Amino acid sequence: MDRRNFLKAVGVVSGTAVLTSCGVDKGTEKIIPYLIPPEEDVYPGKPLLVSSTCTECPANCGVQVKVHDKMYRGERGLFPTKLEGLSGHPVNDGALCMRGQASLMRLYHPDRIKRPLVRDASGNFRVATWQEAYQKIRDSLESNRKAGRKNIYLSGKTTATLAQLIADFCRQLGIERVPEYEAFSHAAVKEANRLLFGRREVPHYRIQAADFLLTLGADIFETFLSPVNLAVQFARARERGLVWFHLEPHVSLTGVQTTRRLSIKPKSEIYLLAYLFHWLIAKGAVKYRLPAEVSQAVPYFHRDEVLQETGLSGAKLDELLEAFRRAENPLLIAGNVATAQEWGLEVAVLAGLIQWMTGMTDSVVDFSRAEDASAVGDLRDVQRLVNLLSRNQVGVLFLARTNPVQTLPRELEFGQRLHGANLVVGLSDVLDDTVRQCDVILPLSHTLEAWGDSEPRRGVFNLIQPAMEKQYDTRSEGEILLQLLEAAGKPVPTTDYHQYLIGQWNQRFSPEQMAELQENGFLELPVKAVKVKLNFPALRAFLRKPRKFRPVEGPVLVVTPSIRSYDGRSRLLPLMEEIPDPLSTISYGEWITVSENLAENLQLKNGDEIEVVLEEMVLRKPVFIQKLMPTNLLAIQRDLLEELPLTIDPNSGEAIIVREGVRVQRTGKHIPLPVLAGSMSGQEGRGILPEEMHHGGDHESEHEKIANNPPHEHKDYRWGMAVDLESCIGCNACSAACYVENNIPLVGAEEHLKGREMSWIRIEPYYVGEETMEFLPMMCQQCDNAPCEPVCPVYAAYHNPEGLNAQVYNRCVGTRYCSNNCPYKVRRFNWFDHRLPEPLDKMYNPEVSVRERGVMEKCTFCIQRIRSAKDTARDEGRKVADGEVVPACAQTCPTNAIVFGNLLDKNSAVYKLAHSSRQYRVLEELGTEPAVHYLGKEPKGEV
Amino acid sequence: MRIIGKVIIASLFLLFVGLVVLKGYSWQQNRKTPPQPIQFSHEIHVKKVGLSCQFCHTTVEKSTFAGIPSLQKCMTCHEKVATDRPEIQKLTRFWKDGTPIPWNRVYRIPVRNHVYFSHKRHVKAGVECATCHGNVEVMPVMKRQRELQMGWCVSCHRANNAPDDCLTCHK
Q: In the structure, what pLDDT confidence band is assigned to residue B2 with cuts at 50, 70 and 90?
């Protein structure tokens, strides 16, 4: 055979071989029924709703878990796919923050610890059985007790039954239960309240009952106490015309939403409060009189001195004072940066004194419903533990649900000191910095896999119930403690924590209350009224101590909390890096925020690296220039730091986050930062926010409207949305909810640097004037006269009879014409397949398709929810009622800024808002006729 | 030599074509009647025993999915009934081993990821099961009757005045 024929033969033969091997299994997809169906009324197409509690942060919001019966990698099962706030819950009333929305990613995190681990002689972890681990702990507890060393239990904030069980466990086994550790312990506020009223607690602040709010440093929308609750309350108070002043040295998300954001010099809060104190007394604007010797002991500063030290203008100070005096129900909250500084305790004491004197403690500052933080200690307690550790006096150290290695100030050197303990036992759900250093790791079940309860604040009792089977060989902390007690030969009623809980609940609650707890997922319990009394001797003793206040010198570094990761704990949730920081709009990466003057002095652009030297610590990070930041100020979010340059306030045990004596210089390096706001938060005269638009003249008449399409007729529904910019606080909860609901891909840093983020709804921050920013949630505007539709060559983008700009994914060929023609930049293109890695892909919502590479996607107004509501309505032979369709973004919004509904229904909430006097539409002059109506902010005039 | 070579090539080519045809046919058959782990007969259950569709496909009237019965449901009868048949013994083995039956899907919407289909809506609108699934009571082996292509769906929707907006089905 010649070469030519040989090749022909080879071609034919190999072709046949290829052909016979292909298509064998194609088309034979598996369909797996249950062996035994689940007891609950759940089947594919009908999700199960389970009430439980979000434990991503100590606020413990009530949640409703949506559980889908679906196939996952060839297995049939029940999978939680979405968390939503529990409607009517006293903490969050249906809302949930972005961390809560993303917390499903903790449940399915690839770093979940799957089985007990024990460190062997070579220092490596090996898999152990539970019995082995218990044995090791039991033996070590005993030998250390005999050797005279202390066994210690340290945990994060714990409430309700688990707190009692830990106490019981420690008592029975002779373990010392040291005060709980939380990075945000509110130590100064608690110390001040102990001193003033003998109550070491943080009260519940009833913003909803106030008409005037003065916040000093407290970042109530980000991490302070219970951010969702405070935001929910803010929305209620705002409707009744709340006037709100916020004072802070740096720029926080909370600050920019207020009526007046006053920038004051770092550490100068004391001057202002002392002045306010004496001014209120002088004006007689007090309810309770203080003895002269007490009021005289509060330092008095002259007005000029106050103005100079705080940097406030006289007019602003007067405006603040008058607004305070005029208010019927004023509320003052001091916290975070105002109390976490050298004179933080003085600030907290003065704030408490003013609260008492003006009668706030009788109404809006509620100690009877204290945010239960009394078992949480402060850094002085941690210092004591560190001392014991460095003297090798600790035997077994339990570390439960806490990550002190990451979150404690660097000067405590907790990571190194940890090895002073004989045996460190870590209880955690994921591998974190602390657990990695432990000798025995006991994997905890996630809250959504276990039974439990919690008491977020006095009088609120939450049920924690599992929404899925355990995925790994994990146990809940309650189970572990009961089983350890049993292993140590102590009597326990049961080793099943669920049974134990039922026993405890039956003791505590009546059958009616039990039924209510089951039904609602939470209980509101009666609380004893608390009338606080001022402890004069303690106060006098405190005021007698001379304190010298001095002006701050040189650049100051503020180490701020982070809305995306709380104290750093949520940074491991991939979604919390994909969604940008609300103020800077930086998603991935680490940066230091600097003021404009500092950037000018050092000739810095965004992304230029600087070196910050603070004592012996050196930080090198790129900068982000924040226009609102005052002179000589630098700020960095604490979760971006490997070691925290914080010191400890010896008076209160608070971590001091305002650091002076900083030296700054540029390194010459440039590190690109993904700043997602394309125009650096400038409006560039586009009139995106109404104020500028109205001031800038009548745009409507300047442009001739171009009709791309003939006007559309809508028969039954014309879906529309109203977004109240007065209510939007820029918290990005909507964005997180949207990501989870709609299976939006996470694309990572590299793509973000190319401007290829995928969010369907984003929060755009814009500078307004010299002092503040405003937020605008931007999603597909579902235009009536949509520029995207006529340019699609394959009719993948088209106008649906209900007014939606539909996008048919499997018709889309990826020309990206629609995106190029969209003036709102809301269409997102899948440049690659970005599927969630295993096992995170368990959270995919089966009601929404997972888009693949080469396809354009965008906000659908949650078409799956519209479809589901229409389905129910049709079953009942009626039309969809107002409020029946709630998109994921509107559902989770703590301030109800987003309202959705049918614009053809004149009685609908959205119709009314769309015809409000504040209504405007973004880039209306283009003639796109958007279905998203914004309600502009009233200009902030006189208050 | 050259002739022999040509004959070889020609016969190989014919073999190739033959294989293509055979393969294509068997593939098509396989897709229509995929082999099942148990030879379940709709004919026996519907025609002889007289079970209604909803007896096993319990959620067909209330959900998007019709539902496949759990093994427990099969065993309520087959604990006692026809236990001597080899196929029922297979069933019992699955039950005893505690493994669900890995049925092979017969009906599949071509781009299922992007399509929303509700059994409930169609049943409630009075569409007979047989319209899509054929007369299963005469099928000892389940065989796909329709390819569920979009054109077929749309023609039926239009004929019956059902909505033909893309978003009715596309998700």
A: confident
The SS3 of residue A89 is coil
Judging contacts by C-beta atoms under 8 Å, the chain B residues touching residue A26 are 27, 31
* Nearest CA-CA distance, residue B55 and chain A, Å: 15
Q: Can you list the domains of chain A with their CATH numbers? A: 117-177+377-445+471-494 (3.40.50.740), 187-371 (3.40.228.10), 556-670 (2.40.40.20), 690-706+713-935 (3.30.70.20)
The DSSP bridge partners found for residue A768 are A772
Is residue A618 classed as helix, strand or coil in its secondary structure?
strand
Paired with A13 in beta bridges are none
pLDDT tens column, B84-134: 999 999 999 999 999 989 999 898 888 778 899 999 999 999 999 999 999
Q: The tokens of A302 are what? A: 């002259």
A853-912 pLDDT, tens digit each: 999 999 999 999 999 999 999 999 999 999 999 999 999 999 999 999 999 999 999 999
In this predicted structure, the answer to whether residue B156 has a pLDDT above a threshold of 90 is: yes
Interface test with chain B among A36, A41, A69, A870, by most B beta carbons within 10 Å: A36
Q: Cβ contacts (< 8 Å) between A13 and chain B: which residues?
A: 12
Task: Tell me the per-residue pLDDT of A111-136, one tens digit each, with 9 for 90 and over.
Answer: 999 999 999 999 999 999 999 999 99
Give the nearest chain A residue to B76 (CA atoms): A36
Contacts with B59 from chain A: Cβ below 8 Å:
43-46
Phi, psi of A572 (to 5 degrees): -75, -10
What's the pLDDT score for residue A32?
A: 86
Report the distance separating Cα A307 and Cα A316, nearest Å.
Answer: 10
Task: Check if A26 contacts B (Cβ < 8 Å).
Answer: yes
Confidence tier at A696 by pLDDT (50, 70, 90) = very low
Angle of CA points A445, A448, A453, to nearest 5°: 90
Q: Note whether B65 contacts A: Cβ–Cβ < 8 A.
A: yes
Structure confidence by residue, pLDDT tens digits, A295-307: 999 999 999 999 9
Length of chain B: 171
Contacts of A34 in chain B (CB under 8 A): 70-72, 100
DSSP per residue, A871-928: HHHHHTTSPPPTTS---HHHHH-TT--EEEEETT-TTSHHHHHHTSTTEE-TTGGG--
Q: Which amino acid is at A455?
A: E
Alpha carbon of A136 to those of A115, A117, A421, A459: distances in Å?
A: 16, 11, 15, 40
User: Closest-CA residue in chain B for A742?
Assistant: B171
Q: What per-residue confidence (pLDDT) applies to A8?
A: 63
List B residues 124-163 in contact with A (Cβ-Cβ < 8 A): 124
Q: Is the dihedral of CA A766, A769, A774, A777 positive or negative?
A: negative
User: Which residue of B20, B114, B166 is in closest CB contact with A19?
Assistant: B20
How far apart are alpha carbons A176 and A390 in whole angstroms? 17
CB pair distance less than 8 Å for B114 and A810:
yes
Q: Which residues of chain A make contact with B170, given a CB cutoff of 8 A?
A: 806, 808-810
Is A88 part of the contact surface with chain B (CB cutoff 8 Å)? no
The predicted complex's ipTM stands at 0.87
Contacts with A611 (C-beta within 8 Å, 6 or more apart), sequence order: A618, A619, A620, A664, A665, A666, A667
Cα A719 to Cα A904: distance, rounded to the nearest angstrom: 8
Whether A46 and B63 lie within 8 Å, measured CB to CB: yes
Span between the terminal Cα atoms of chain B, in Å: 62
In this prediction the pTM is 0.93
**Tens digit of each residue's pLDDT (9 = 90 or more) over A579-635:** 999 999 999 999 999 999 999 999 999 999 999 999 889 999 999 999 999 988 999
pLDDT at residue A557 in the model: 96
Contact A45 B64 (CB under 8 A): yes
